[in-house]
Fold this sequence. Notes:
By secondary structure, this protein is mainly α. The chain has helices at 25-42, 57-79, 97-117, 119-133, 139-160; strands at residues 13-14, 84-85.
Amino acid sequence: MRMSTETPLGVQPKTAPGAGRSGLVLPGILVLLGIYLGVGIITMEVPEGAKHPGPAFFPILITVAIFVLAALLALQLVRTPEPVPADPQGYRSYSDWKTVALVAAGFLAFALLLVPAGWLISATLLFWTVAFALGSKNRARDLGIAVVFASVIQLAFGAALGLNLPSGILEGLIG
């Protein structure tokens, strides 16, 4: 029995030597980001009285995760490259610029509001904005989840690491 490799658009995919490897750009970017974070961790000034595991613990975990993700993604792309259609005109691309703009605006608002409004408010706004941008329709539930998530992160940094995130206008309530 012969199986058809025809795609839903009727384009026969083919994989030529070296084709479909443009996706290796993303693992490359991840490696550069990991190197940048690694240099930042190495040059980080850790205060003498910092509690264990210290302020470099989470950045180290994130950096290791970035390198592992880059390696796994590169391995997958090398082992199974993306099929290239016989007709290059068969590609249709779509970018959801509204979502990109909303997430970017959320990050910008987070950066601008972090010090004056504090972590809890600015992170809640960021998490809620990302959920909204990605299409969630239950605004009240998303706001509740965002508050809980931002609060848990604030408590983790304060209790587990001994680091205080900016309190902003909630200075007297959080500390």
